[in-house]
Design brief:
two-stranded antiparallel ribbon; 7 strands; 1 helix; single chain; mainly beta; 14% helix; 5-stranded mixed barrel; 118 residues
Length: 118
Amino acid sequence: RGAGGTWQLGRAEAGRAPLRLRAVWMQGTVLEVERGGAPGGSARLQDGSGPFTALGVEEVPKGRPCLSAGKYVMVMGVVRSCSPEPILRAIKMTDLSENPVHKNMWNLEVEDLHRVIP
């Protein structure tokens, strides 16, 4: 965790300086939804790099229709923790399941972003 509530994304393996983040955009498949635990519910998702958790998913406008296992969704959120896996406080959620291009292109978009950001 860095100054001002930011998180540091290490990029040494790519030969790049660390990147400071407050919010992130992630995409993944909903594995499970928990409505009783964390305030506002939580969802466990899986993207190409591993699992992550989104908190407050029932409080996000239009988030509720995304909340079923197997849906492919976008989650924009504030980073709460990075270890052992990312945990986000959801700000926005969108169901991307209708168009398989979103899922097929996600890894390429991430790779491209790593090349573009200095």
